[in-house]
Amino acid sequence: MDALIYLWTTSEEEKGPDDSQAPSLTFRDLISDPGRVGLDSLFQEITKLRTIRHLQLPEDLFIHVPSKILKRYRQRAISEDIREIRRHPDPVRYTLLAAFFWCRSREIVDNLVELLIQIVHRIGARAERKVEKEILHDLKKVSGKTNLLFRMAETALEHPDGVIKEVLFPVVNEQTLRDLVKEMKHTGPAFRQKVYTVMRSSYGSHYRRMVSDLLDVLEFRSNNDIHKPVIEALELLKKYANTAHRYYAESDYIPIEGVVRTAWIETVIDKETNRINRINYEISVLQALRDKLRCKEIWVVGADRYRNPEHDLPSDFEARREEHYRALKQPLEANAFIDQLKQQMHTSLDKLEKGLRNNSSVRISPKRNGWISVSPLQAQPEPRHLSLIKAEIMKRWPMTSLLDILKETDLRIAFTDHFKTLGNREILDRETIQKRLILCLYGLGTNTGLKRVSAGDHGESYKDLLYIR
């Protein structure tokens, strides 16, 4: 950790003139959030995680320390200047840095999982949008398909020996049938197959290179044997990560049930060779993993948000189960809880149904299985005295700045007293802290920035404002 704070800097003045001598990651890089969703952001987060893991901090180092205390240590480590951290005694310095890197490691794992979830969703969503855009101009939706089918069936039964052109076309014209055929091709298995083809192309040519690095730094687990096939499938992907084989070996156990969606089985299994295509199988595994991660059926070792769900409960939860349920005001029996939810839903739906009859501003639209459409409320008439009040305010306090308003508010309610230091004590007097706090809040809240605020005639330097922030 000493090497980190001596090599990595947070200010430009500590960097040498030769960029080739600069380290690949700075301390600022480690505390930065991930960028836009994409492989560049994902690989950057992987680099951060590997860098922190080189410290070899034990996984259970702060497992019994309350999260609020850890967050205070973490925030203190990133708020202090690098030089200040170096001056701390060894116990203080190592504790602050260990807490920061331990928390940051868990945050980066969460970021990686979030990026994985969003990238997998993007692959499918973009494929669907691309296919829909291609066929939109060529597609005319046919309404009343059930009625058309009834009329065609009735006519066919009445004239079993008739010619189609003479019997069916008078009932349903030829163009309607052509439109119906096009619609079914674009919404049925053919549409799904086209979407999968686009997904495969996008994944195979661009996104596939993330799998080996991602599986190398993340360890997925599940507490439920039902989801064991997904874990086994991930191990298979890891085994073949750096190979060029098109298919998996016939001797390998390849989980299908619980991993591959029913609609994609024919695509994943090659019809000619009856073997599993690797790229198609990887897409299915990532989709299954995304679904399980979102509901925490699968969790990640070393994560915070996506940690083992059993750790979400207090350690004494089972021993004091009744006491905890009383505090939550929830029944002990699952059926009683479900019945309570059902009753609440029925009550709310009945209230909605009764209100729809007399409320013209709310309606159920036919869009996507019935969206609830709420019309904007009409603007209320302006109060008679509002314009007079505005005029009087402008007369008394013309061109009052937001900074003056912020200062006046603090003088009245003293909201800056609720800002507590992350250190053990406050050396500066409260008046100086109050002034710098107000300037920081003004600069951050208005997006003016601390540098521009410090350039004003306030008597505070940029470094002083950074320290307070």
Strand and helix map with partners:
Blueprint: H1 2-7, H2 27-31, H3 39-53, H4 67-79, H5 82-87, H6 90-136, H7 145-158, H8 164-167, H9 174-187, H10 189-205, H11 210-217, E1 220-221, H12 228-239, H13 265-268, H14 278-294, E2 299-300, H15 321-328, H16 334-358, E3 362-364, E4 372-374, H17 386-396, H18 402-413, H19 430-445, H20 450-454, H21 462-468
Antiparallel strand pairs: 1-2, 3-4
Helix pairs in contact: 3-6, 3-11, 4-6, 6-10, 6-14, 9-10, 12-14, 18-19, 19-21
Q: Helical region count?
A: 21
What is the terminal separation in angstroms? 24 Å
**How much helix is in the residues?**
55-70%
Structural class: mainly alpha
Oligomer: single chain
Description:
It is a single chain. The chain folds into three domains: 2-109, no CATH class; 126-310, no CATH class; 397-468, no CATH class. It is 57% helix and 2% strand. The chain is built from 21 helices and four strands. It has helices at residues 2-7, 27-31, 39-53, 67-79, 82-87, 90-136, 145-158, 164-167, 174-187, 189-205, 210-217, 228-239, 265-268, 278-294, 321-328, 334-358, 386-396, 402-413, 430-445, 450-454, 462-468, and strands at residues 220-221, 299-300, 362-364, 372-374.
